[in-house]
Design goal:
about 35% helix, 13 strands, Rossmann fold, globular, alpha/beta
Length: about 350
């Protein structure tokens, strides 16, 4: 049965092959998988996004993202969802943003993927609700759910096929790929690489939140030099080359990572990963085989030095066994079919 799926992105970050955020990358992969498998994919995302299916663009916001901007944006997303549901027979709405509760359809069959730590979402979303299904992206994240939360089994993330075919001569640099914000701990990666006397390439984006811009200005920029460089957002092709040639990837997140696509992408390229033991990281990294779990900057420095001794083919093999895109895509497509068949509410209505 061919399906029509409406995917709704976090409204402040573009989706597409070159997306920075993990949620945006997963949405983009599922959009392509739907089209490739003969289904119809409709994507609501901010201007500048790219979709394999039909893109319904949301006007981009200019300036700092504050509460008033959020309220206007959420109202615009609600209007776009309503318009699509009015004109199309949508089998399932799939929401990806942390703010999905602000534009949640009342009666349309809806799946929400919880890409971020569960305590970042309002408590009320975990109560059972007709025609709303929630799920996590890792077992570690799922275990943190409230006792009575109504959650489907988690669906682990997968990474693009092209990464597994990437071969580059290893160079001396480490790499960190991330949104640039306080909880991602990029300043600690810079400090560790300075102490290890290793170059660091930082790919990512400073989104226009006041706290993010202040963090970059006060905590990251002063530590940069000719060997520790901020490259800004990386397109997929460039990211692939720099990941595959790095001696290691560093994921210095200070909060519970729910999955870490960066770590999975690095391993797919054959590059070991160094990370703190937060959230799902011990599930992603096999300590001493595909990377190192470290407690502090001192241990991170030692791990950066030792990373070049790890077997890069073992990293790639483990990644293919565990983070295959085929497994993720098929689980989502099967779930889409299951939810479309079990949904009982009118498919055209929005509360």
């Amino acid at each position: 049965m061919a399906l029509t799926v409406l995917s709704v992105a976090y409204p402040f970050a573009p989706v597409g092959p070159d997306a920075v955020g993990g949620a945006e990358q997963v949405l983009s992969a599922l959009d392509r998988a739907l089209v490739r498998n003969g289904h119809r994919s409709i994507v609501i995302a901010c201007e500048g996004s790219k979709a394999a299916g039909e893109l319904v663009p949301l006007a981009a916001q200019v300036g700092t993202i504050d509460d008033s901007v959020r309220q206007r944006t959420w109202e615009a997303v609600r209007r776009l969802i309503a318009a699509v549901l009015e004109r199309e027979r949508v089998d399932l709405v799939h929401l990806h943003g942390i703010d999905f509760h602000a534009y949640l359809p009342e009666r349309a069959p809806t799946l929400a993927t919880l890409h971020l730590p569960l305590d970042w979402y309002p408590d009320w979303i975990f109560a059972p609700r007709p025609n709303l299904w929630l799920h996590c992206v890792s077992e570690a994240q799922h275990r943190t759910a409230p006792k009575d939360a109504a959650l489907l089994p988690p669906i682990p993330n997968g990474v693009p096929r092209e990464l597994f075919r990437t071969r580059q001569r290893m160079r001396d640099h480490a790499i960190a790929l991330s949104r640039i914000c306080p909880e991602k701990g990029i300043h600690m990666a810079i400090q560790a690489c300075r102490l290890a006397d290793v170059p660091l390439l930082i790919g990512g984006q400073v989104f226009p939140y006041e706290a993010h811009e202040r963090y970059f200005r006060e905590d990251v920029a002063p530590l940069l030099d000719s060997r520790r460089r901020f490259l800004g957002p990386l397109g997929f092709a460039r990211k692939r080359r720099l990941l595959a040639s790095a001696r290691c990837a560093i994921v210095p997140s200070l909060v519970a990572e729910t999955s870490s696509l960066t770590a999975m992408e690095a391993l797919a390229c054959g590059t070991p990963v160094i990370a703190f033991p937060h959230g799902a990281m011990p599930e992603v990294i096999e300590h001493g085989r595909t990377g190192f779990i470290v407690k502090d900057i001192s241990e991170m420095v030692q791990a950066i030095t030792a990373a070049s001794s790890l077997d890069r083919e073992a990293c790639r093999k483990v990644a293919w066994e565990r983070f295959s895109p085929d497994r993720m895509e098929q689980r989502y497509l099967s779930l889409y079919h299951e939810l479309a068949l079990t949904a009982t509410a009118p498919r055209h209505a929005l509360g």
